[in-house]
């Protein structure tokens, strides 16, 4: 059994936090051989609720759980962190777009980036879940100049999983048969869920669907607006599915993606596919040796190009907005 790994989770007393922490403690984030020390960060008003969750974690008697500490100070919470899940932020409510949260939530990620820069472990891996996730990740990254930029990622795995599930339902095939779906761009309604390179049981997915109108007018908006659909039907933003996607994201980062497949992650662009360098945009990626690599060489047709460009333009606008707010 290895040394324990420090996992910092922000927003630990929130909805996603509650769905996430028990899965981490059970070994699903890092694997069944890795002991975990949880470091929970909350705002002072919610720290007692996080203490309550810590008591429940203790009551789970998880063999892989090496300890739980609760903090209300980011510097302490991120000290020595090997993995950081930045969940704590306000969720949107009915009628809002995720970008509307920029002003309310952006300010959270500057001090957290600074705290990561000051005290996280050398091998820190960061996943931002709190919305607007891509731009919050950009804020944290730009405030942590000593941490390699590629360690900062934002979550589009929930969108990816949603796309796989919709395709599976449409084609009546198990999700395990679906490969190489991509989410491009922002975790927002402008995102582009791409099935043109995807495979279903070894066959091209777009050909298997054979219905461009369903793809353009039903599938893409259904996936891109699924967060709003959940808020409408459930009365609160997605929580357990978001926690599950966060587990998938980090598990694949640490353990590698499966052969013959890829996943979707928002990470700092290196200029691939014409996305301006530095923007935290979603790409098709594989994970090898604990590092994400953008899948290269995919043909991008005019339909896809227009959609990728629109989502990337929104990311550039969000970057300008946070520059104006003095957050980067
Ligand atoms: N990227 C995605 O796919 C995705 C999916 C679902 C939800 N989200 C986002 O995740 C965020 C959390 O959602 P939730 O449903 O858990 O919300 P929630 O309101 O239930 O919980 C948020 C928690 O964060 C805490 N918090 C606020 N500011 C903090 C700070 N500075 N430091 C530490 N903790 C802080 C709050 O006290 C609260 O307990 C929201 O922004 C939501 O929109 C993202
Ligand atoms: O849509 C939201 O506001 C929550 C989350 O980002 C989601 O995709 O479910």
UniProtKB/TrEMBL annotation:
HAMAP family: Malate_dehydrog_2. Keywords: NAD, Oxidoreductase, Tricarboxylic acid cycle. It comes from the Bacteria. Residues 156-320 form the Lactate/malate dehydrogenase C-terminal domain. PROSITE patterns: MDH. This is Malate dehydrogenase. The active site is at residue 187. Substrate binds at residues 92, 98, 131, 162. Its EC number is 1.1.1.37. The keyword Nucleus does not apply. It comes from Dactylosporangium siamense. One of its GO terms (biological process) is malate metabolic process. PANTHER family: MALATE DEHYDROGENASE (PTHR23382). The keyword Oxidoreductase applies. Belongs to the LDH/MDH superfamily. MDH type 2 family. CDD domains: MDH_chloroplast-like.
